[in-house]
Amino acid sequence: MDDFVAGGGRIPAAAQLPDTGQVPAVLQVAGVSTDVLVVLGVVLFALVLFTTEVLPIDVSAILVMVTLMVLEPWTGVSPAEGISGFANEATITVLAMLILSAGVSRTGVVQMLGARMAAFAGGDLRKQLLATIGVAGPASGFVNNTPVVAILVPVITDLAHEGNTSPSKLLIPLSFASMLGGMLTLIGTSTNLLASNVAGRLGDEYPTLHSFSMFEFTHLGAIVLVTGSLYLLFVGHRLLPERVPPEEDYVGEYEMDEYLTDVAVPEASPLVGSTVEEAVDTEQYDVDVLQLVRGESTFLEPIRQKTIRAGDVLRLRTDRGTLAELLSVDELRIVGTPAADEELEPGDETTLVEIVIPRDSTLVGETLETTSFRERYDASVLAFRRGRQLIRDRLEAVRMGVGDTLLVQASVDSIDRLSTNPDFIVAHQVPDPNYRTEKIPAALAIVAGVVAMPALNVLPILVSALAGVVAMVVTGVLHPGELYESVEWSVIFLLAGVIPLGVALERSGGAELIGEAVATSADFLPAIGVLWVFYIATGLVTEVISNNASVVLMIPVAVEAASRIGADPFAFVLAVTFAASTSFLGPVGYQTNLFVYGPGGYRFTDYARIGAPLQVLLSVVTVLGIAAFWGL
After folding, report:
1. Phi and psi dihedrals of 351, rounded to 5?
2. Which of 397, 485, 487, 536 is deepest in the core (most CB within 10 A)?
3. Is the backbone of residue 234 left (phi > 0), alpha (psi -120 to 50) or beta?
4. Structural domain of residue 295, as residue ranges?
5. Residue 558 resides in a domain
6. Rounded distance between C-alpha atoms, residue 267 and residue 309, angstroms
7. What's the rounded Cα separation, in Å, for the pair 194 and 547?
8. Phi/psi at 563 (nearest 5 deg)?
9. CB-CB contact of 176 with 228 (8 Å)
10. Is 41 buried (19+), middle (13-18) or exposed (0-12) by CB count in 10 A?
């Protein structure tokens, strides 16, 4: 039996005393060291946290980091090493790239490109798909794919409605195309940067391993992008049902006709003379006053301090049972029920939109009441959509979750403010976006410089990216105060938290133990078969934990397995990296899938319906490509 790692050092196989049946104190089950058992226990603990999401995923990562430091005698992770993820090259580079991506989005260049492609597409579904993929794929190679999807969701949603197409046909392809495009360059996704860092760290022990160059795998990424694009164009869209009707009608889509009513206030009503806030006891009744109409004037938020007069017409959001009580108690009279969106949008100053709650939103876990949503954003929430579930009762008490879609009624000005707020993704383009179009040349030149410097070996990617951040501020593409709101801090804390987990897995011998077990598959599979197994395994792991966590866990194991069977570890690193960035089976594994979950009206199974065949197809293409370009 080979020697194995325990607590950072090697214990000779002879020390296992197999002949006497006695096991030294340092060893436990089946010759596995206490260190390995503890670290594998932490890994299992992390998997449970990431899968169940009992805590936000970034908080779970920090908890894992703290656990590793507390268990230092077994994990070998000291406090200094535990927090080293915050100063890790991958973490800082990702932070810089998120800021650069925000700078590009502020100029509106991606939105403008999307709008031009939309004009080209018209009402032809094939052209609409081509426009969606043609913008999202290449753009995601040079601008982080997460903000690319956030930017394009409203563009593609409007493209669908204008072209009489269901958004359900286009939004999953948008997300998938962005993932495929992210594999074009080193900076396409945070996963690539983290995988590069892990491979570089392991290079001291495995000579063929090294950090990725800017265009290390661009040729394979291009093949994967083209293959995936052809699938989405000719096969994938046929597997997607029309969950959202082509004609946009939120009243029907959210089944609001039973929850919206216009009532008149007669002179005898006890509500006359009271404010809107005083008019209804929200502790007793589940009702919202959405607007007040007085003659030719319509008043929206903020209206809580508006005094009600005889003859006013109030629009109420409430169920029929509560409405009956209000009519009796307050002597109100029904004058109508909005039957279509146009009746909910009186004039050009009011609109209905959907907004999506992203993973790093400060509203996650909060309610409309605790956030004072109506007062803070001058907007009224009419309903929630959580997957296929519609929530229209007791909205003030509903805790908002990642991926929730809110149907909002607000003034155009309020929607403009919501569109610039990082807590939301507005699923429709705002009428008058405030883009810094004059800064487009500067932004594109900065991104080109950030890409060119490491590609020409002039500067490392870390230095190049940070220099680009400074240039964004100096040229006015970004204002200094916008730097901090441009960063997805949940991603940064996730990276910092999971990096020490990979270190512990390597040092304890856990990676070696698992790698040795997987290597036994070489007894009945060729090396390319084992490589394919790692691709599929990584793809499945990514579905239940984050893509970044799966890379940290799977790369050390894949490298060890490769060395055991005499294969090139670099080929296995590439397979894990590509698989972790192609999470097609559900909305949880990759944030871009969550962005489109609500606006597309999808069911959880819709992702697997279109994604499972694509995952199998790309697993074959990627593995064969790795074998052809890099060898095994």
Report:
1. -150, 160
2. 487
3. alpha
4. 258-337
5. no
6. 8
7. 10
8. -65, -30
9. yes
10. middle
Distance in angstroms (rounded) separating the CA atoms of residues 29 and 37: 9
Radius of gyration of the chain (CA): 27
Residue of 168, 157, 112, 154 lying closest to 135 (CA atoms) = 112
List the Cα angle 309/312/315 in 5-degree steps: 130
Under a CB-based contact definition with an 8 Å cutoff, are residues 38 and 75 in contact? yes
Q: Tokens 């995936």 correspond to what residue?
A: 228
CATH number, domain of 271, equals 3.30.70.1450
Dist. CA 231–CA 463, nearest whole Å: 38
Summarize pLDDT for 257-305 with one digit per residue, the tens. 778 888 888 888 888 888 887 777 777 778 888 888 887 777 776 777 7
Separation of alpha carbons 283 and 306, rounded Å? 20
The whole-angstrom separation of Cα 315 and Cα 556 is 60
**What are 41's two structure tokens?**
């226990």
- How many domains, the chain? 2
Is 29 a domain residue?
A: no
The pTM of this model reads: 0.77
pLDDT tens string 462-476: 899 999 999 999 999
Gap between the Cα atoms of 163 and 119, Å rounded: 10
At 497, list the tokens: 């938290």
